[in-house]
Design brief:
rod-shaped
Length: 44
């Protein structure tokens, strides 16, 4: 197996994990924002 193939696979895996983590974080932030908004509506 060629070293460049291994390096490319590792970079692709790392990029995939990063994109997945960012997507999950963005979704969590959106859910948190929605909850804060609902709480504000209940307070008034």
């Amino acid at each position: 197996m060629d070293l460049s193939i291994i390096i490319s696979a590792v970079i692709a895996l790392a990029a995939g994990l990063m994109v997945g983590w960012l997507a999950t974080k963005a979704r969590a932030d959106q859910i948190r924002a929605d909850l804060i908004e609902e709480r504000r509506e209940l307070d008034y």
